[in-house]
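Records of this kind hold a single protein each, on a pair of labelled lines. Below, a sample record shows both lines together.
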Amino acid sequence: MKPILLVRNDAFETFGIAPATFAEAGVPVRVLEAIDPEAPRISLDDVSGVVVFGSSSNVEHANEQPFIKELRELTLEALDRDLPYLGVCFGAQVLAWSLDCPVMKAPVREVGFEPLRIEPAAGHDPVLSHYRDGDMVFQWHMDTFELPDQAHLLATGDGVRNQAYRLGERTWGVQFHFEIDGPEIELWLKEFALLGDLLEEWGKTSDQVWEETRRHLTAHEAKGREVFRRFADVAREAAR
């Protein structure tokens, strides 16, 4: 099986539980350093699926950050090829934006663990059907998006409606960070503390986020690992 491509869009992206989960599933991975203009680009001929991760940039920065427009081209090529594609947070927004859907500021900024609301279409979804109404999922985003035409809405949130959607049979956008693990949460909180006040800018303290993490991370990681296992199965089946 060809590797699954992991696309890094931020210097502080560790991919969380993704690499170990794909390794356990017997699926190789390759990494595209999208934010590094000198990093070698990878042909989609050489991969069996694409996972686009989060970023501290937003699509509104596309004119300042050339990698964002390059991601749009990669996303559209993956769609043209019907290559399995999974967008996480910023990746879900890039997917919508690539299809000319508006991406805008969300009504609230979300950080930490928030409840997920499951839509009927998720019941038989091959990647996300294991989530249940009220599952607590990790968020860190200020933007949201309108759904592309023909998208199936799979999950919503109390503060930000569009949380997960599927296009066709092999393309997903997920707003919440199902990939994250404890070390990555710690890294993000420490880095943000150097830049600003989390309570003032996002409405929660680091201590509050850590308390939520202690309560919810074990179950959250188990659900996230299942997402990656299922996505690996989709990629494996598509490659046959």
About this structure: The beta strands are 4-8, 29-33, 49-52, 85-88, 103-118, 136-145, 152-157, 164-167, 171-174. The two ends are 9 Å apart (CA to CA). The mean pLDDT is 97. The longest strand covers residues 103-118.
